[in-house]
């Protein structure tokens, strides 16, 4: 499994953590962020969320983020997976898993990665609500 992926199908959190841990015996702390779909957003019910990407550019931007995180933080490994499909409440959307020798670096890198992903990766979401369909404004 590649450490950076955009895919339609769901992913296994356990398999991703295991893949990260298998890369190095130096990893002493693993931190992850799992983003899931909600059934409520900005004061209204949400029936579904559809994710679209700028094909080719989105995964490249995620790979650049991973490389930057490995250079910027004292971490050993990082994995980033984002789904582009239609999801419903409770479905998994995005996973970031970071391994480091010590927890602080893993926490810092994981937080930075999700914030930067939301700012820099060309993935957009469209919500279906009782009022119809609308694109959601990006916010880190």
Oligomer: single chain
Q: Write the CATH architecture name.
A: Alpha-Beta Complex
Number of strands: 10
What's the helical proportion of residues? Answer: 25-40%
Strand order of the largest sheet: 1-6-8-2
- Helix/sheet category: alpha+beta
Detailed description of the structure:
This protein has helices at 13-21, 57-72, 103-120; strands at residues 4-7, 29-36, 40-41, 44-45, 48-53, 77-83, 86-87, 92-100, 123-129, 132-135. It has 140 residues and is α+β, with helices and mostly antiparallel strands. The strands form three sheets. It has a four-stranded mixed sheet with strand order 1-6-8-2, with helices on both faces. The protein has a four-stranded antiparallel sheet with strand order 7-5-9-10, with no helix packed on it. A two-stranded antiparallel ribbon has the order 3-4. A hairpin with a 2-residue loop joins strand 3 (40-41) and strand 4. It is elongated, with a radius of gyration of 15 Å. The model has no long low-confidence stretch (mean pLDDT 96).
